[in-house]
Every structure is written in C-alpha cells, then in structure tokens.
Design brief:
Blueprint: H1 3-11, E1 20-21, E2 27-32, E3 35-36, E4 44-51, E5 54-65, H2 68-71, E6 83-90, E7 105-107, H3 114-124, H4 143-171, H5 176-188, H6 190-203, H7 206-211, H8 216-226, H9 238-254, H10 275-287, H11 292-298, H12 302-309, E8 320-322, E9 325-326, H13 336-358, H14 363-371, H15 379-386, H16 394-408, H17 417-424
Helix pairs in contact: 3-17, 4-13, 4-16, 5-6, 5-13, 8-9, 8-10, 13-14
C-alpha cells in the first residue's frame, strides 16, 4: 500500500457517498474534497465536510497510518492547525493539532472497493511487467484519452526544457539570438559532443559572431578555434593553415581569451557526425543568414523551417571528414532527420518560451509543426510501440519520453491518465 493510492481515492472521490463515519462514529458527509496541494502543507486545501452535523471548511491531511502525523511532526506545525479531517488507511492512534485539540479521523480500509484494490496491486506487481507497469494494458486504453494525455505530456516536456532557456536568457540579459546560438551549438553536437559544443558556444563572445555574419572563414575559424581543433602544428593542409591564421588574427583583434572547453570527440561517431562537419555546417548557417532567430520564430510550418536550416558544410569538406585527409567526395548537407531533431530540441522549445514571454498563444502551431515530423527512433519509443501504444509522430514520441522518464520510472501511475484509467475500469478486473 502506498500513500499515493489514498490521494487518488480522495481526489477522485472513489469512496461510497453514504454511511461514512469517523473512528469516533460521527457521521461524515463529503461536500467538497478540496484542491490537491503538491507543495508544503496539508495534502488538500479548501475542503468542505460535514462531521457530526457540523459543517467544516479547511484542509485534509492523508497518511497511511494515523501515527504518521507525529512522525512528520505536524502536531507542532502551525500549517496543520486548520486540518479538519485526517484520512488514513489504518487508524493506530488519536492525533492532535498544535493546541492539543483532537482531529477527526476517517479510516479508509473498510470503505475502498475491492476491485480498485485488486487493480492497484495488479498494476504495481513486478511479476506482471518487464518494461513498465501497464505494459499489458496500455494498448487498450481509450484512444481519445491517451491522445489528450500525450498532448499534455508534450507541453509538460516543453516546460521542462524551458528551464535551460530561461537560465541562458537571464545570463545573456535577454539576448535571444545568443541563446539560439548556444542551443543550436549544443544540438549540432548531438549526444556525444553536445556538452563540448555547449561549452564552446558559451565561451564565445556572441558579438564577434554578429560581426562575422557573411564571412564563412571568420566563422569557421572562430568555431574550430574555440573548440580546440586548430592546435595541431603537424597539419600542413592549406585550408587548415588559413583557418589557424585567421583565428590568431581574430584573437588579437577582439582580445579573445583562450578558454579550455570539453574536447570534441570523433571516436564512435559516423563520419557525417564528426565535429568538424557539424561545426562547418553551423558556421555556414550563420554565414548565410542574418536575423536567424527572427526567421525561425516567424516560420509557421515545417517546410519553412526546413528552408531556413538547409545548409551544407564548406566545399573543403565535400572530400574531407578531418583536416588534411582526403576522402570520397560527398556533399555534407544537413539531413532531414537531423533537422527534425533541431526542430524538436531547439526550435519548438524556443518558440514556446518566446511566445510565453510576449504573451502570445502558439501552442496550436507548435503542435502542428511537431506532429508533422516523424517519430524518433530509440529504445523507449520502440518498447512503447511494441506494447501497443500508438506513436506515429514526433509529438507523440516526445510525450512518450516524458511519460517514461517522469511517470513510469518513478511509479507515478496514479498521477498518469493511463494508470488512473486502468484503475477505474472495472471490466479489466
């Protein structure tokens, strides 16, 4: 038995409506269960309950055992003086407020429907699942309910991604262009080099990037140099030497201080994901477009975002993956799947945050854009698909990642629409 089940029972009124009594045999009539409080203080606030013929308005506290009241030291906490009912699974002792007045107690164990308890134990019985608690039933959940829940989870994920954006905005004094550059850099680095590129972008004075718009040599030298990729004196390649000289010139001109960043990695990557290729692509993105932030924020469709982000690495990289080593000729343009990840991880969160700060509503547009992208391919998404969850686009795959990371792995089934639905469906018992 977990306390979250008692919260669920109280919040959703899974109790008989009649014949409730306190442990002192006083009649209870539930008029308003109150508002669920997820912060400090009593579990439910502003409840209205008739006890023994007297109408009370105040808070409700929930515990597995009455003695938990004292284990949590509520008897000395003034925040709990307005508790009008103590709801417990098992009443093992009387409890009191700070002024020593006794609080009425409702013991739940004799009131809970057996089918609900059976469903609860089935959901949390580890013998029934290998991946997630509801893996045997998630594919049968009502489609309308599931789709609504996934939309909520998608925006919940956007909210969590907003924390980094808001932090970067504060540190950059609300410079949205700089924040875009930092986030793009991080995503161009992907999983392996994301932290390295993030360090590089934060270490660069973005005003120098602004002054270098349109000059690909300057931009590439700044990115490669700051990332620590222009420090090999043994490379005699003309392109490399030119970039190294340009970086030395820019360091003197702008008084750039050398800062150590996490070294970018090549090992384990496909050549098309080498940091050299990604940094050249990023440099070309800024070389060919001024006001990149405005262009992306104004883009109102997937195709328009694609138009802005479709760039290639410099010609040198057509037959190179690393400095000085010739390879088979191949254009190094950004692929659609890579652009999709940039839209998911950078553009959508930025659109969401930017609209919030300006008091505008773009949730529908963001949904339309993300729903127009293919679902992501990873272990979590594949497992949900295997167990019958309908995942067809990137909005759903992002929502599924939020569901798995924040609910499934934390056993927050009773705070999940899927878990709550399974618990309340008697036909499954």
């Amino acid at each position: 038995m977990r306390e979250d089940l008692l919260h669920y029972i109280w919040k959703y009124s899974k109790l008989p409506k009649e014949h409730l009594v306190t442990t002192k045999n006083e009649a209870i009539s539930l008029i308003d269960m109150g508002l669920h409080n997820h912060l400090a203080g009593p579990d439910f606030s502003n409840a209205r309950i008739r006890i023994g013929g007297q109408l009370w308005a105040g808070n409700v506290e929930i515990h597995l055992k009455s003695s938990d009241w004292f284990a949590h030291h509520h008897e000395t906490d003034s925040n709990y003086n307005n508790v009008i009912l103590h709801v417990v699974w098992e009443d093992d002792m009387s409890v009191f407020r700070e002024d020593r007045s006794e609080i009425p107690t409702l013991e739940l164990k004799n009131y809970i429907p057996k089918h609900l308890l059976h469903a609860y134990h089935k959901l949390f019985d580890k013998r029934n699942f290998n991946f997630i608690n509801c893996e045997k039933d998630i594919g049968t959940v009502d489609g309308f309910l599931l789709n609504n829940w996934l939309e909520r989870l998608f925006f919940e994920r956007l909210e969590s991604k907003s924390n980094l954006i808001l932090d970067l905005l504060e540190k950059s004094k609300n410079d949205w262009e700089r924040v875009l550059f930092i986030l793009l850099s991080r995503n161009f680095g992907s999983k392996v080099n994301g932290d390295s590129f993030f360090d590089m972008a934060r270490g660069l004075n973005f005003s120098i990037i602004r002054k270098s718009y349109g000059n690909i040599v300057q931009l590439e030298s700044l990115l490669f140099g700051t990332a620590g990729l222009l420090e090999d004196d043994a490379v005699m390649d003309g392109y490399y030497i030119n970039l190294k000289k340009e970086y030395g010139f820019l360091k003197n001109k702008f008084n750039i201080k050398t800062t150590r960043v996490l070294p970018p990695q090549f090992y384990g990557l496909r050549p098309s994901n080498f940091p050299t290729i990604r940094l050249s692509q990023l440099a070309n993105l800024y070389a060919g477009r001024q006001n990149l932030f405005s262009q992306l924020m104004d883009a109102d469709s997937v195709s328009r975002i694609y138009d802005v982000l479709r760039v290639s690495a410099s010609d040198y990289w057509n037959d190179h993956y690393t400095f000085g080593k010739v390879s088979k000729k191949r254009n190094k343009g950004l692929g659609t799947r890579f652009i999709d990840l940039i839209i998911i991880n950078t553009i959508a969160p930025l659109k969401f945050c930017y609209a919030r700060q300006r008091g505008k509503e773009v949730d529908g547009l963001i949904l339309e854009i993300i729903s127009g992208l293919k679902k992501e391919e990873n272990r979590v998404v594949d497992n949900f698909k295997h167990h019958g969850a309908p995942i067809e686009n990137a909005m759903q795959s992002q929502a599924i990642l939020q569901l798995y990371n924040e609910y499934c792995t934390e056993n927050r089934c009773l705070q999940c629409a899927v878990g709550a639905s399974l618990l309340g469906d008697k036909s499954r018992q």
